[in-house]
């Protein structure tokens, strides 16, 4: 059963756009798959290597801008950005990691936060290249959402499989050893600086590709959207944490949950209160519904707090804990 | 020459306030070993307290220090007690859980402020908000000068508190070695709670002092959080003396940057300093002063 689960999931995902014709749900699924890629990237640097990144948006935005500028400035297909977006994100990550990984402790986390802001400022100020706050608008290749869905699915599968391959290889053990005890890793002859760089660059590559996918799919970006701290960087962390830090399928579960929750808050519980207000004709509920959709970021923030307090290792990581809490038949612990 | 001196003066005056923000941050950093990414948001809350005091109750901003500082002291203690302390016992893979928690708390504070006060810009305009006096050719903003001296007063008090009182000694002991402090009979949990409260109260003072000359909206917390961590990195993590130097340096750098490079780069300058420090002086001023 456990071995078959990924295959069943894959079959369901492959059949999804053929069964569900509704554009809204197809759109949500494309976002979920995109977040699987970003979450996997975050997971490899933060979850496995233990270097928590607060600035994934820097790599995401770089990838998105690469794809966008390919189309507007060079006049070649933005799909080339899928490859080169990852490469330019690595070009940002390389010098950045080289500087910050020399220091231990909180420096890396803070530096990623700073990188996020620096990249957003550059994209805003450098108007001759990026058009600043006006943003970049390109014409989407496909009208239907189905091709985008399969491209996103392919990207998500590639990222999950490549993470699995990396984590089963020698590199994977190096990453985890750096997370668990850097001194011990170093004393065993692991070049921790080098392998932190490797991990960061893999993460940046995946995140950059996701950014390029976003550019191609949405057709419009501006600095506030793709370099957003809350909507991209924090969301990436949440996808990683909710799903399960340091697990292969954690980001997959996390992406599903977080996109659903995000949509849940944004639409005011899928229009539940609005519907209730129109049925009962109560003004109070109308006002309440308005407040609920206004406060979606607040709900999101409260969720961050609750998740970290109650599920620090995520749904996949704390699965046994959740089951034992929910199970009505408590099994007695066997002592001995 | 006048422009240069004028920039120098306004940089130092602003730097005094930044030091106050930085000391709060570095105290929390020292005792808890984490960066508090809700620091600017706590300041934003203090600014709204000041705004409410002035607008609805007619209390002068300087007197409302007596309201905003205790209020934020208790808010900080509550945050530490109910959200950050429980995390210490939770078994988790990532050590940065507490930092993430402060990000979440920052988001919640910002959104609650937006919920109550909407996103509109608010300000507190007193008689002395735009008043200035001159020494020679150099103009001094009265509000900023008062703020500077109150900031210095608080800094000196803080030093006296840390060096001379029992509680202050316990805080320093916990910052140096938590386990050893615990063995010496210091209740480290109570100390971390107190420290978070004191750090919040200090940043509340900075927010209230800034209010007569600044404007206010819910998202103002983010930039100040970034300034606070630039100051802490510049001064060296956990160093109080370093935070003062860091604050003044950032104030000067921002003032000179605004005068000679351009206002658009205001936020960039702090981040540029951050990267330069990481490159050339990792460890900050702490490495030079050894305190």
Radius of gyration from the alpha-carbon trace of chain B, in angstroms:
19 Å
Beta-strand residue percentage of chain B: under 5%
Radius of gyration of chain A: 21 Å
Q: What is the tally of helical segments of chain B?
A: 12
Strand order of the largest sheet of chain B: 1-4
How much helix is in the residues of chain A? over 70%
The dominant shape of chain A is globular
Q: Could you list the spans of chain A in which at least 5 consecutive residues all have pLDDT below 50?
A: none
| Quaternary status | heterodimer
Low-confidence stretches of chain B: none
Please bin the fraction of helical residues of chain B.
over 70%
Order of helices and strands of chain B: HHHHEEEHHHHEHHHH
Number of strands of chain B: 4
State the total count of DSSP E strands of chain A: 2
Number of helices of chain A: 18
Largest sheet of chain B: 2 strands, antiparallel
User: In what order do the strands lie side by side in the largest sheet of chain A?
Assistant: 1-2
Q: SSE order of chain A in H/E notation?
A: HHHHHHEHHHHEHHHHHHHH
- Class inferred from helices and paired strands of chain A: mainly alpha
Give me the secondary-structure category of chain B: mainly alpha
Compute the average pLDDT of chain A: 84
Task: Please tell me about this protein's structure.
The complex is a heterodimer of chains A (336) and B (291). In chain A, 77% of the residues lie in helices and 1% in strands. Chain A contains 18 helices and 2 strands. Chain A has helices spanning 5-19, 23-48, 56-74, 81-100, 107-125, 127-130, 146-168, 170-180, 182-187, 192-218, 223-226, 229-243, 250-266, 268-280, 283-294, 296-310, 314-317, 319-326; strands at residues 136-137, 220-221. Chain A is globular. The model of chain A has no long low-confidence stretch (mean pLDDT 84). Chain B is mainly alpha-helical and 291 residues long. Chain B has 12 helices and 4 strands; from the N terminus they run ααααβββααααβαααα. In chain B, the strands form 2 sheets. Chain B has a two-stranded antiparallel sheet. Chains A and B meet through helix 5, helix 12 and helix 16 of A and helix 3, helix 4, helix 9 and helix 11 of B.
């Amino acid at each position: 059963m456990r071995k078959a689960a990924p295959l069943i999931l894959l079959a369901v995902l492959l059949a999804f756009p053929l069964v569900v014709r509704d554009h809204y749900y197809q759109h949500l699924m494309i976002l979920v798959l995109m977040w699987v890629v970003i979450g996997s990237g975050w997971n490899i640097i933060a979850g496995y290597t233990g270097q928590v990144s607060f600035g994934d948006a820097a790599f995401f935005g770089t990838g998105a801008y690469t794809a966008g500028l390919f189309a507007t400035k060079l006049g070649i297909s933005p799909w080339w950005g899928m490859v080169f977006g990852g490469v330019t994100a690595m070009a940002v990550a390389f010098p950045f990691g080289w500087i910050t990984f020399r220091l231990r402790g909180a420096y890396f986390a803070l530096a990623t936060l700073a990188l996020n802001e620096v990249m957003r400022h550059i994209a805003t100020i450098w108007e001759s290249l990026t058009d600043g706050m006006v943003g970049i608008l390109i014409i989407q290749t496909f009208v239907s959402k189905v091709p985008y869905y399969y491209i996103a699915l392919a990207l998500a599968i590639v990222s999950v499989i490549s993470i699995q391959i990396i984590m089963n290889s020698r590199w994977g053990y190096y990453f985890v050893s750096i997370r668990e005890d850097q001194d011990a890793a170093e004393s065993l002859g692991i070049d921790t600086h080098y392998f932190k760089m490797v991990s960061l660059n893999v993460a940046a590559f995946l995140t950059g590709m996701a950014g390029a996918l976003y550019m191609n799919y949405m057709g419009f970006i501006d600095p506030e959207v793709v370099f957003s701290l809350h909507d991209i960087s924090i969301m990436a962390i949440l996808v990683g944490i909710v799903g399960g830090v340091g697990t292969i399928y954690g980001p997959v579960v996390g992406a599903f949950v977080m996109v659903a929750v995000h949509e849940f808050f944004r639409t005011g519980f899928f229009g539940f209160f609005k519907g209730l207000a129109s049925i009962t004709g109560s003004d109070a509920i109308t006002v309440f519904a308005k407040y609920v959709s206004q406060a979606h970021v607040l709900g999101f923030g409260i969720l961050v707090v609750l998740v970290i307090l109650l599920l620090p290792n995520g749904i996949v990581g704390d699965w046994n804990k959740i089951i034992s809490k929910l199970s009505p038949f408590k099994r007695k612990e066997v002592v001995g | 020459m006048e422009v240069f001196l004028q920039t120098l003066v306004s940089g130092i005056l602003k730097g005094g306030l930044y030091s106050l923000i930085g000391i709060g941050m570095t105290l929390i950093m020292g005792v808890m070993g984490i960066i508090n990414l809700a620091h600017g948001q706590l300041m934003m809350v203090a600014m709204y307290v000041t705004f409410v005091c002035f607008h609805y109750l007619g209390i002068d901003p300087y007197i409302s220090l007596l309201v905003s500082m205790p209020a934020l002291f208790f808010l900080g203690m509550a945050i530490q007690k109910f959200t950050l302390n429980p995390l210490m016992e939770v078994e988790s893979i990532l050590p940065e859980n507490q930092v993430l928690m402060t990000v979440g708390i920052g988001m919640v504070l910002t959104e609650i402020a937006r919920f109550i006060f909407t996103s509109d810009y608010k300000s507190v305009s007193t008689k002395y908000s735009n008043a200035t006096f001159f020494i020679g050719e150099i103009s001094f903003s009265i509000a900023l000068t008062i703020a500077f001296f109150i900031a210095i007063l608080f800094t000196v008090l803080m030093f006296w508190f840390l060096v001379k009182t029992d509680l202050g000694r316990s805080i320093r002991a916990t910052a140096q070695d938590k386990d050893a402090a615990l063995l010496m009979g210091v209740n480290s949990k109570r100390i971390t709670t107190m420290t978070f409260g004191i750090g919040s109260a200090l940043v509340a003072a900075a927010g209230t002092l800034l209010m007569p000359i600044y404007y206010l909206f819910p998202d103002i917390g983010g930039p100040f959080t970034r300034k606070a961590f630039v100051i802490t990195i510049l001064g060296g993590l956990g160093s109080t003396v370093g935070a003062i130097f860091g604050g003044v340096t950032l104030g000067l750098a921002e003032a000179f940057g605004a005068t000679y490079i351009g206002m658009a780069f205001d936020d960039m300058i702090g981040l540029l300093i951050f990267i330069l420090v990481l490159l050339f002086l990792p460890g900050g001023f702490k490495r030079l002063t050894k305190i």
